[in-house]
Amino acid sequence: MPEATTSPVRDLLATAVSALGGQERAGQVEMAEAVADSMTDGRHLLVQAGTGTGKSLGYLVPSLLHDKRVVVATATLALQHQLVERDIPRLVEAIGGVDGVDTSYAVLKGRSNYACLHRIREGVPDDQGTLVDVPEGSMAKKVLELRTWAEKQAADKGTGERDAAPRHTDREWRQVSVGHRDCLGATKCPFGQECFVERAREQAQRSQLIITNHSLLAIDAIEGVPMIPDYDTVVIDEAHELVQRVTQAATDELASNDVDRASRRSQRWVDGGQADDLADAGDALADAISAASPGRFEVVPEQLKDALVLVRDAARACLSAFPKETSESEVDAGRTQAKGLVQEVFVNAERMAAGSDADVLWLSEGGDRVPPRLCVAPLQVWGQMRDKLLSDKTVVFTSATLMLGGDFSSVATSVGLKPSERVVESGAVSSGGDALPWRGLDVGSPFDYGQQAILYVARHLPPPGRDGLVKAQLDEIVDLVDAADGRTLGLFSSRRAAEAAAEAVRERLPHLTTLAQGDAQLPELAKQFVADPHTCLFGTLSLWQGLDVPGDTCQLVLIDRIPFPRPDDPLMSARQRAADKAGGNGFMQVAATHAALLMAQGAGRLIRTTTDRGVVAVLDPRLATARYGGFLKASLPPMWTTTDPAVVRKALTRLAGN
């Protein structure tokens, strides 16, 4: 860190912190100056900033000082909402009087997150593509309420964003919004001048700072679909989730009913038999899917391969049969959306039929009223990120969890940076014209984990099996929860395990309130959990990340087993196999890295302030006995560690005041 006691970013950060009533944090200052340096010299930066560092200010201040536009991309709507509704407005108010600082900002989301005035005013296409003005059935009242809200937003120059809308379901929102394939385009839409999406883009064009999400960033930078005005630097917050979000954005699906729907919609626009041919191809795909087994395809069955080629060719012919638009043609939403459906079928079938080694193809299980679907995803995304994002922009990656196994290499490699390119000392840049120098920085945490937290590994328990929780594990859970007198967040590897644990605690500790994921919506469960310390909340993956419950509400975090990916996970298993084939250690590079990331996030639920105290209890003895246990433990905060259950029960009892 520079020895000078002052710098523009340090001065502005001090002004902001003072105006906000905060105190200077060394880690925040170090981060802000490192981000500013990265933006100036064009070197990529990975900065791990522990909970409580104040990393939002650590990157927002240098972003506003930078002389070119900066994009901030988050993984979750919760963080995006926090930035836009709280952090940035407060920062702008705090530094608004400082000369030379551009405090303009805008929010950009995917098109389907905004209400569509054309769909609201002209109606929604039915199965035949005819625009129907009035919705029918039980959701009619809610859709009309959403339409009224959107019209008021248009009149008031509001954003038309889904987050600001009256409460609704996904199905109801689809009646007032469109995806990018259904959009007529601003120049052709009669309501283009009022369009919420276009207004958001215009605001972004005028702004120094643009707040968006990982998925939109991936579509813009990697898929090559222009969504974001030109920018110089991107700050990727929650960067530990980036690979998963980019993978999701590049994943396509196809089912026989998608083909049927596209065929029905195109019937009224195509004069020849091409729509019927597409329907026949859909039937062939349905037969091929029913004959195939769910899971990843090592070798695609011939029947399925032939059906995909048939769908691809039929969709291409159907697209060609749509009447050409002329300058005098009246724009018809039904035609645009029908053609969009066929285009999507064609693109997905073409990708799946190609059988590229760069993709993984699998068949989902399906379920109640959900037909099996073919899914295709990229085997890896680091190459695309390196070629299409890192080679063109300066990127700052930040999160509380970037060092896995005590090192940045795993995360750096996953996003497209090479460990050999890391700049350790000033000026030590890798040779080669295509090298992408990067720096890794851990600014620490204001928390004293050694004093505030205990890591307990239940070494005496049997290793977890495939049959769920056994009696010894349930007994251990009940004993720990009893000692903590509630105050427990249980993070489980499956819904079945969470429900079994909840049932055992309810039966044996009836004086406590025990909630299980699925009992109510997650925000309501979290609210109940915070309201009463004598409460336990048990759940699965959505509780591992993002749940913020400071104070004595949560003094025990239970993790039932190391969260390795399921052996039958199509994408993870393919990536692990590819790493082995390339001469690496697929288990450590894929499975152990995945588990380390989740465990670090899960353990991070415990200590949220400098006064929090508690225990992270891992009921999987492999953390203490397996060779990979050291890698996993090095990924966790530096807590005091024990394997003695008596010591832990006494500590929990003291914390609970019993």
From TrEMBL:
<dbReference type="GO" id="GO:0005524">
    <property type="term" value="F:ATP binding"/>
</dbReference>
<dbReference type="Pfam" id="PF13307">
    <property type="entry name" value="Helicase_C_2"/>
</dbReference>
<dbReference type="GO" id="GO:0006139">
    <property type="term" value="P:nucleobase-containing compound metabolic process"/>
</dbReference>
<dbReference type="InterPro" id="IPR045028">
    <property type="entry name" value="DinG/Rad3-like"/>
</dbReference>
<dbReference type="GO" id="GO:0016818">
    <property type="term" value="F:hydrolase activity, acting on acid anhydrides, in phosphorus-containing anhydrides"/>
</dbReference>
<dbReference type="Pfam" id="PF00270">
    <property type="entry name" value="DEAD"/>
</dbReference>
<dbReference type="GO" id="GO:0043139">
    <property type="term" value="F:5'-3' DNA helicase activity"/>
</dbReference>
<dbReference type="InterPro" id="IPR014001">
    <property type="entry name" value="Helicase_ATP-bd"/>
</dbReference>
<dbReference type="InterPro" id="IPR014013">
    <property type="entry name" value="Helic_SF1/SF2_ATP-bd_DinG/Rad3"/>
</dbReference>
<dbReference type="InterPro" id="IPR006555">
    <property type="entry name" value="ATP-dep_Helicase_C"/>
</dbReference>
<keyword id="KW-0378">Hydrolase</keyword>
<protein>
    <recommendedName>
        <fullName>ATP-dependent helicase DinG</fullName>
        <ecNumber>5.6.2.3</ecNumber>
    </recommendedName>
</protein>
<keyword id="KW-0347">Helicase</keyword>
<feature type="domain" description="Helicase ATP-binding">
    <location>
        <begin position="14"/>
        <end position="285"/>
    </location>
</feature>
<dbReference type="InterPro" id="IPR027417">
    <property type="entry name" value="P-loop_NTPase"/>
</dbReference>
<comment type="similarity">
    <text>Belongs to the helicase family. DinG subfamily.</text>
</comment>
<dbReference type="InterPro" id="IPR011545">
    <property type="entry name" value="DEAD/DEAH_box_helicase_dom"/>
</dbReference>
<keyword id="KW-0547">Nucleotide-binding</keyword>
<dbReference type="GO" id="GO:0003676">
    <property type="term" value="F:nucleic acid binding"/>
</dbReference>
<keyword id="KW-0067">ATP-binding</keyword>
